[in-house]
């Protein structure tokens, strides 16, 4: 019987980021379907799509955590190096550069007024969605704080963890415009 070697840290990082972006693509579809269902007055379908979006956020968080399942020194010597010149053309490489990220933020901006006037029947699903986003944001921040002592690849002059927390606050303002938060996961 042949022993199977575990994937390299670089392969873990790359492949779980691919999984992360697939989840984000699914999230975009689910949120667009959520909006369409609401526009058509199909509250049950809207709830299903919002719950699906929550599941995809949690799956994205798991992908983020699994992508970082190796020691910090390996990140510094292998993974981080793979995201800098000459290995990439950009001198400020970031997930912010992906089309998925740009589209998702646009979808969230478009949904802000909908989240602001959400029917009461969707309050529980919306709370779950907010909690799932917070879980994803915390997972990303945790990975960052584990590997990065100060600046990120994109913002060398800024504290990477604080930058992620600022992004989280801004995005929460889009998906939770009334600031209700999640009563179950404050």
Descriptive report:
This protein is mostly helical. It has helices spanning 9-39, 43-67, 72-82, 99-116, 123-147, 160-175. The N and C termini lie far apart (50 Å). The protein has six helices and no strands.
Total of helices: 6
Q: What's the rounded overall pLDDT mean? A: 85
Structural class by secondary-structure content: mainly alpha
- What about the largest sheet? none
> What spatial form do the alpha-carbon principal axes imply?
globular
Helices and strands, with pairings:
Layout: H1 9-39, H2 43-67, H3 72-82, H4 99-116, H5 123-147, H6 160-175
Helix pairs in contact: 1-2, 1-4, 2-5, 4-6, 5-6
Summary of the model, kept short:
This protein has 186 residues and is mainly α.
Main features:
186 residues, mainly alpha, 6 helices
